[in-house]
Amino acid sequence: MGKNILIIGGGYAGIAAAKKLSKEYKNNQDITITLVDKNPFHTLMTELHEVAGYRVEPDSVRVPFTKIFGASKVNVSLDTITSIDFKKNQASSALRTYNYDYLVLGGGAEPEFFGIPGIKENSFTLWSYDDAMKLRHHIEETFEKAVAEQDRVKRQRMLTFVVAGAGFTGIEMAGELLEWRDTMCAKWLIAKNEVRIAVVEAMSTILPMFEEDLRDKVAWYMKQHGAELLVNTPIVGAEPGVVKLKDGSTLETATFIWTAGVTGCAFAESLDLAKGPFGRDTKAGESPKKNRKGRLLVTDEIRSVDYPNVFPAGDNLWFIEDEKPLPQIVETALQTGETAAHNIIADIEGHGAKKFKSNYHGFMVSVGGKYAVSNAMGIKLSGFFAMFMKHFVNLHYLIGVAGFNQCWEYIKHEFLDRNDNRSFIWGLGSYKTRGYWLLPLRLWLGLMWLFEGINKIGEGWLRWSEGTKSSWMFSSGVVQKGADAVTAASSWGETAAVTAASSVGEAAAPVMDDLFSMFDSAGPVADAVSSASTSSASTDTFKGVWDLSKPILDFNGKIATWFRTTFMDGMAAYIPFQFFQLMVVVVEMGIGLAMMGGLFTWWAAVVSIVMCIVFAISGLFAWNQVWFIFGGFLLLGGAGRAIGLDNWVVPFFKKWWNGTRFARKRYWYLDNPSKSK
Question: Is 0.85 topped by the overall pTM?
Fold first, then answer.
């Protein structure tokens, strides 16, 4: 009998549960998995401050569900659930009813204002993608308006930014403001000392989850960059443009950002399920007089205490572990989501349920794009290494969620698309070369490859009756399939001699003689050039320090010999020499034509690089030919789009490829997946 699994919410917990369930039942047509969310994307909540602070583009924190689930069996419904009938096992929206056998509740959390008057009405929050974008636009507009403001008091209010709360979100948001301040001041010619950034915290310290030494490092860094840290300073109210402090003083600001608290969500609060008790002395299943707002009481199997087929997860749940409630952090969401999925599978398959046990790996916080502190798995880091660890953790999460494609998107947003030095590698990876500047290189490299193939035709590589012309690429005595042993040996000896001579520069002598003869007939200037080039005094004075005509690796050295005997002698020798030579000619000419026409340039450049590396390892590539490899790398950056056929061909094939089930299932699409037919 089929089972319907409904997941409400595409946050960290919902995604973790959906991925695990999808993997388990990918080939089971009796299991239906539906995820409902109002947005078509998963939001990276831990990176919202980067969008709000204009460090990255909005797409960097949005991972489309089409990417995450690809061609999996998870059905995504863009909808908003308004009510749930737990007795009928039905969840309803304004237009649709969803039947379920198992329900995962991952509705997320909301800011907690603690009933302080005026806070909710007069502050910005940072708990959703919409929040981040609203704050981003507001700050941009505020700087722009402040430039034109002549009233000093109003101007100072506009250039004062107050962040309430010194936890993860507050410190990270303040760090982004410190960096963005520098950019905006340079843009609008505002003195940096006019901008005030204050972090207000009711407790006696910032970042209470960290050890004192790490807290001190963050405090020192922020103060060095001009931030004010006001600890032991409770906020008691707010009005338009004014933040009221407990000591009776006020802060006048046009930008008041509230990050001082988080609770469950209003939707979870509205459900007829037991909430987390306010006091620890209340036993599971009892109805306490005061409840934790929007946090649903669960058992150690992450089940609702009221209905065993309902699994609140992530920020929605209330569970006491080691005499403390589970924190509302990403690792809690991921681990409870996976536990919920595991126990749904256990119920369906008749296996034993799993009891939840947290396994937290530590904490990390960034202060802008260049500084961070972390304590992960007992290892304390700060500065560059902590920032590296933070990016590594994000990449680890993304590769599990949406594959390497999303990791590449993250790298581009964080490092390669930034041009204001707001990353821990500054702007070293952000500058881009215009495609039209690469056009001469593309044409010349293509021409070189084209004539490599044409020259081989002239040498008789396609005249099969003359025997093999490629035996010099194999070890002495190795006979290619279809080649006459005597002819092959003769060909190897003659061609290898010429190749070796050319590699060390001896074969270049006749060419130079011809050039000098040509110069000689040109007149006195040519005579002077020829004389200078052949002068023994010149040779003695200007001795070469690096013979670029020599091969990179010795043809008879260990590396070249190993490669030749393993791959050429052991594999390629069994290919009929006619096919082998035809293949080499076609590939070389194909690379050349593709580059010259700007058609599939990326693939042509990759094949070019690979072939050059093979030649180099074989001992057949000289130092003065290495530019082929570097030129190939330069062409990987979309050089075919500039005055090339790739401008039309690549978008067509990309759209086709991204729509295939193969690409979507394995996350092998380019950029974003396309809608399948």
Answer: no
